Amino acid sequence: MLAKNIKHSVGILIAVSRYNIFNTLYLAGDEEMALLNTLYFLIRRFFFKVDFPLGISVDLTNRCNLRCKHCYFLKQNQSTELGDEESLLRIQELKKNYPSVIHAAWLGGEPLLRKELLVQCVRLFPINMIVTNGTIELPVIKNGVFNVSVDGTRRYYESVRGTGVYDKVKDNANRNDIRINVTCVLNRLNADCIEAFLDEWKNTHIQGISFSFYTPQRGIDDSLYLDGAQKDRIIDRILNLKKEYGNFIINSCSTLKLMKSTVSSEITTRCMAPRAFLSIDAKGKIKNPCVMGSEADCSRCGCVVPFEIESVLRKKHIDSILTVKKFYTGH
Ligand SMILES: C[S@@+](CC[C@H](N)C(=O)[O-])C[C@H]1O[C@@H](n2cnc3c(N)ncnc32)[C@H](O)[C@@H]1O
Ligand code: SF4
Ligand code: SF4
């Protein structure tokens, strides 16, 4: 314990004196030190200056092995993707052009369809988040966290994501050697299962579950969309469940309250996500305004990102700051 504390203190001192030693530490294989270094990056940016973009979101592939009903990606026209070498070169170029980037999110399509490339890419950034459908075994990645998409208990999951993979996804997500969070996009098909879902997953190895809402396409009144009043009632249920589940529900109370209909559209119409995160499609091109593409309806956006940014960077809510820290470090 004493040795661990000394190691942490030394790590912080080193990080404070030379904040750009991440690569050295990572290559030396000391992921814990790299995480401390990353924390220092975040604290420094938070208190002194926030450089944008903070992060990059990359569609690592245009391919997917599922056909989910709610998926924005399937509605985008991404018919080709860069080869492995071209992808790496493009990401290295972006890293050079945007030195403020410390966070990379890897998605698609299904990013684990390009597992070897993914493993090479995460080495380029201090903090990584891999968003995956969890159907393929997850590689061991220490400088990052997995977000496995599970949209409810089996019956509800299958109504959104299709049949035959639920058990496999649950097996793949139930590991304690890497940091894994579950992310659930609520829509009209699955919103009823929140309580049963939390109950089913609470005894697994995952860090917790994060809830967001389905984002529709602009001008389309589709059947998956939950309106403001419906979302408000669900948010109240989740806030109530937080009394029982605490931080196992990853959304902070402050962020959840910002998602309520009285304030949500004000936040999403001046969304900071496009400034904070650069989004790159599978061809290496910048896509606007965010990963969800040009047709996403910002006024009805259910993504947690705009609310988390608002809560952490603008309002500086302490519960949201601690949530982000826990999300990436596990404590
Ligand atoms: C496009 S997927 C790519 C990564 C991976 N294939 C997966 O499913 O996790 C990224 C995330 O976006 C979510 N998503 C897809 N369409 C959405 C929509 N219309 N509104 C909100 N979230 C959506 C998915 O549930 C998933 O968590
Ligand atoms: S697995 Fe991900 S990318 Fe594939 S269809 Fe589902 S949400 Fe879209
Ligand atoms: S769709 Fe949502 S996250 Fe994307 S720019 Fe609009 S409000 Fe922001």
CATH superfamily of the largest domain: Aldolase class I
SSE run: HHHEHEHEEHHEHEHHHHEHH
The rounded Rg comes to 19 Å
Q: What is the approximate shape?
A: globular
Mean pLDDT: 89
Strand content: 5-15%
Counted by DSSP, the helix tally is 14
List the helices and strands and how they pair.
Blueprint: H1 2-17, H2 22-27, H3 31-47, E1 55-59, H4 84-97, E2 103-107, H5 115-122, E3 127-132, E4 144-149, H6 154-161, H7 166-173, E5 180-186, H8 194-201, E6 208-213, H9 228-245, H10 253-258, H11 264-269, H12 273-276, E7 277-280, H13 305-314, H14 318-329
Parallel strand pairs: 1-2, 1-7, 2-3, 3-4, 4-5, 5-6
Helix pairs in contact: 1-3
The structure holds S-adenosylmethionine and iron/sulfur cluster (2 copies).
One iron/sulfur cluster (SF4) is lined by residues 64, 66-68, 71, 73-74, 108-110, 133.
Short descriptors:
binds S-adenosylmethionine, 7 strands, 331 residues, TIM Barrel, globular, binds iron/sulfur cluster, 2 domains, disordered N terminus, alpha/beta, seven-stranded parallel β-sheet
Task: Report on this structure.
With 331 residues, this protein is of the alpha/beta class. It has two domains: 1-49, no CATH class; 51-329, Aldolase class I (TIM Barrel). Helices cover 43% and strands 12% of the residues. The protein is built from 14 helices and seven strands. It has a seven-stranded parallel sheet. β1, α4 (84-97) and β2 (103-107) form a beta-alpha-beta unit. α1 packs across α3 (31-47). The longest helix has 18 residues, at 228-245. The chain is globular. Mean pLDDT is 89; it is low at 1-29. Bound molecules: S-adenosylmethionine and iron/sulfur cluster (2 copies). One iron/sulfur cluster binds next to α12 and α13.
